[in-house]
Amino acid sequence: MDLSLNTATVRKQWNLAQIIDGCARHGIRGISPWRDQVAAMGLREAAKAIRAHGFTVTGLCRGGFFTAKDWRDDNRRAIEEAHELRAACLVLVVGGLPAGSKDLCGARKQVRDGIAVILPEARKAGVPLAIEPLHPMQAAERACINTLEQALDICDELGDGIGVACDVYHVWWDPKLEQQVRRAGKKRLLAYHICDWLVPTRDLLNDRGMMGDGVIDLPTIRRWVEATGYAGFQEVEIFSEHDWWKRDPDEVLEVCKERAG
Ligand code: ZN
Question: For residue 254, what are the domain limits?
């Protein structure tokens, strides 16, 4: 599988222009930028630089947060940006509970309804939407869609132009993972994110491990993904306050290539 770099992996050391140059230097042909980094560089400028290198934009991070106040406009802008960058998908981190609420069922319904509202615009722009289920520890604050099964139920309900981003960090524990990857199939599997789960995990958000340093059976999950006919990239996405964000970014990219296999 070809390698893509989720730009969060070296965001503390490099800005987007430096990351683009770094990927080119290291022969990494895919990139998945975050919108704040794109905004800092300028959308046009970023799109131009990425295109000049012939990179595949494996995703734009992120749209979603359907339980927040400004979700409508924010997602409209995200779709436009993904279109401009020719991103393979717009990754949706769907949002958690509204402030002060305990109504998880209501939040999930709000998410489903929000996606239904933006999906026609995404289709028109030629931007597939990728729901990224997040680990249940994030249900309150970031995403109340926590399994591939939940995400795929929404996809099946809403039809074409929508699928899932399968991030091993969020779904490795799921007893139904193999079954749901198969269910997603080539059609719904829009992105595949890799890293590792460290034991112990010291921070719920920013302590992801480099592939091989934790307990996720990456070769097995990769086999399941490849069995669907998935022809996309594997995207390294590591948030690491204690380790990889402190290292020389050139070293980080070298290790990413080595460990991705
Ligand atoms: Zn991810």
Answer: 3-260
